[in-house]
Amino acid sequence: MDIETEVGRLLTIKGLTLSIAESCTGGLSCSRITDVPGSSAYFVGGVIAYSNRIKMQTLGVTQEALDIHGAVSAQVAIQMAKGVKERYGTDIGLGITGIAGPNSSLSVGESLSGSNKPVGLVYLSLVSTAECECKNTCSAEKVICNRYKFTGINGAASQRKDIRIQSTQTMLEMLLEYLRGGKLPYKNGSTRIRRYLGSDLDYGI
Predict the structure, then answer these.
(1) Residue 97: which H helix or E strand, with range?
(2) Parallel, antiparallel, or unpaired for β 142-149 and 43-48?
(3) 3-class DSSP state for residue 161?
């Protein structure tokens, strides 16, 4: 069973809904989720917030967070996840922001604070008000945000594509780990990743 199907199975069993806000991955996460037949039962929708203007207007990302931390930051990733979750009324919201390359350039409307961030830097965030299967089950809002530095695996020619796939794969692993209540995440790539890249991913962390 691939990771998208397993995520969908657990969301269905738990009766949870999901929404996603993406920047550097450009909708790839939403595409992978909706590859699964019947995903409309748990996936409500997504936002591709490529520019800072859309991050602010659509997701409620603050100008202060962008000015101080830059579009590629934990603060913005969390605000993206919270924003899509609140606007779409879902149990879980995911946020992805990063630099896929090939150059470490500023995003549309980015402040100078983001100018020294390297290619492959990605922040992944999960915000949930759903109960999790942890030792002390709780219904309070849970916020997870992880920082990654992906490298790609097939050289400069495919680096951008590799980083985007690595980002979505790791986001799905993070979601799966949360749905499993903190158990070990999905490892060693999925059939989909091997089909795309021809080998398992080297996360370069």
Answers:
(1) strand 92-98
(2) unpaired
(3) helix
Q: Which residues of 113-135 are buried (b: 16+ CB within 10 A; e: fewer)?
A: bbeebebbbbbbbbbbebebeee
Write down the pTM of the prediction: 0.80
Distance CA 89, CA 147 (A): 26
Residue 33 contacts residue 48 (beta carbons within 8 Å): no
How many residues are given for the chain?
205
Q: Where are the domains of the chain?
A: 3-197
| Encoded tokens for 173 | 């692993």
What pLDDT was estimated at residue 156? 64
141's CB contacts (< 8 A; 6+ apart) are 127, 128, 129
Domain at 3-197, CATH homologous superfamily: CinA-like (3.90.950.20)
Q: Which amino acid is residue 191, in one-letter code?
A: T
Residue 15's pLDDT band, with cuts at 50, 70 and 90, is: very high
